[in-house]
Amino acid sequence: MTNILERVFKDLAGKPMSHSQYVASRPKEAQIESAKTQAGLAADFTPILGEGKSFYEGVQDLREGNYGMGALGIAGAIPLLGYGPRVAKRVMKGTDELSGNVLAGQSNYIPNHYGNDNKAIPPTATEQRIGKTIVKAMKGGQNPLSQAEVAAAGKKATGFAGWISDSPLNIMDAVFNPKSRALYADTGINAKTQKSVQNILKQIDENPENTSRLLDKAVGQVIYNTHIGEQAGRVGAKADIMDEISKYSYLGDSYTPVTKEAFKNGVKQTKTMRGKRELKVSEADLDTAYDVFQSNFDLGEGAKLVIKQPTGKSGNHLGDMAAKNPANKFIRQAAKKLQDAKGTTTKEQWKDTLVDMSDGDKNYRVIKQDKDGGVWIRSGTKAEPFRGSAIVEGGVAGLTKVYPNGRSINFMFDQHDFLEKLPVVGKALEKLLPNDVVAVAGPMHLNLLDTGWAKGIKTTEKVKPSLVKDPTRANQAEVKGMLEELANAKPSAEQVAKQRQIVKENVAVTGGGMLTGAAATNRAFSDDEE
């Protein structure tokens, strides 16, 4: 331990200095504050003691109604896995240019995010214990406890713990490694994201047959990185390549303030043809689409908008609306029911049948019918999301205006809400990610009754609409080249020196408490020497 400490402080200060020498060299007030900080960090980083402390704090938070921090504290009590959440509680902070850095390199997927991913797998004893604690606290200690609720709560907590603990070295790297801090400060590129891209490029070289999906994965992680920076309110320099990769997946300007004008102008960039005729969407329909979009989210003042391409590196949204939209099945059932009844279908019958078909606990609902007979349907809920194929999204909202012949106008809305991915710790992260980022794809035109899923249903719409694609957004070699540029980005020597000084002044004072995880810190600083 002594050798590691001396090595770290030599690296930081430029000359040999023990921990005690460093502390003694600081003003008395700073030494007192350092002692307090070190005591807290020592407990957080120490096995058993840290787990017990975390569990106690978690239960206290739950009793006080702070369910976000409470669940994080409970997760931090898990042996081995608890290490990551305990560190996260201390280090999820940053300056303007570093805001979002700790979160920007994390994986997009958290197990059991939307509930119990696989109910056939019973919860472990640890998950049951944690689940009971969380459910009891949320129910005010009342019994009986639902086993399903206990399993879901326990799996959510351990899912989050596993997610954040899957890369504790990356978390520490984002906070303690001057080179990684400098990279994000100079370019907005998280070191973990850069490493992920480097690994994916290597996989492409080894398995070129998987190039398309691997490129999607790499671009998705870069977009996620960029989104988190925007959500965190990061202010600072950003590498041009970050915007170039984002624009490859979006239409027009990215991260514009959310307004009706920006929404309508943005979606008008999507062009679709039916034969030789361009399909237009009326201003009234665009007004309805925006009204549903706005009511779907509780957006803050700093909300930002991106317009997605219906197909491309951000996901195949057109394909999702055609094949995965949960509303499509009951739309076809309604059409078949009316067809079997024989006779002409009136506007009222079309709406009433769709309303009847949507009764129950289905994740869609009829909003209204326009004078032209088209019925607006909203699909996807938080409880049962509409899951698309995009790499960077979890659940989305679908919006469809459909006519009796199956002709439809479709939109997809997606809030890149990191809090959505953290249902048990959302409250704890609200201040870290204050800005909402919302994405829209559409209008997408489809014939819902002229597909393989609608066999036996008659429709007059036989000419299929065709999306006008931008050929400059389909060049895989160009995407790979952009990713290679990102993979080779480096911070300036001046920024590395600046971050080294910040680390020396604000992190090194924690001494032994920080270095209980000595191997991790040692690796972080070793990376900085390369």
Instruction: State Rg.
Output: 26 Å
Q: Mean pLDDT, as a whole number? A: 75
Give me the count of strands.
10
Helix fraction by DSSP (H/I, runs of at least 4): 40-55%
Short characterization:
The chain is built from 24 helices and 10 strands. It is an alpha+beta fold.
Question: What does it look like?
Answer:
This protein is an alpha+beta fold and 530 residues long. Helices cover 51% and strands 11% of the residues. The protein contains 24 helices and ten strands. The chain has helices spanning 2-13, 19-24, 28-45, 49-63, 67-75, 83-91, 101-104, 125-138, 147-165, 168-176, 178-187, 191-206, 211-231, 240-249, 260-267, 283-296, 317-323, 327-340, 347-357, 426-429, 476-487, 493-506, 511-514, 518-528, and strands spanning 250-257, 272-274, 277-278, 304-308, 364-369, 375-379, 397-402, 407-415, 437-447, 466-467. A hairpin with a 4-residue loop joins strand 7 (397-402) and strand 8. Helix 6 (83-91) crosses helix 9.
Quick tags:
disordered C terminus; 10 strands; three-stranded antiparallel β-sheet; disordered N terminus; seven-stranded mixed β-sheet
Q: How do the strands and helices of this protein lay out in sequence?
A:
Layout (H helix, E strand, L loop, with lengths): L1 H12 L5 H6 L3 H18 L3 H15 L3 H9 L7 H9 L9 H4 L20 H14 L8 H19 L2 H9 L1 H10 L3 H16 L4 H21 L8 H10 E8 L2 H8 L4 E3 L2 E2 L4 H14 L7 E5 L8 H7 L3 H14 L6 H11 L6 E6 L5 E5 L17 E6 L4 E9 L10 H4 L7 E11 L18 E2 L8 H12 L5 H14 L4 H4 L3 H11 L2
Parallel strand pairs: 4-9
Antiparallel strand pairs: 1-4, 2-3, 2-10, 5-6, 6-7, 7-8, 8-9
Helix pairs in contact: 3-4, 4-5, 5-8, 5-9, 6-9, 6-10, 8-9, 10-24, 11-22, 12-13, 12-21, 13-14, 13-21, 14-21, 18-19
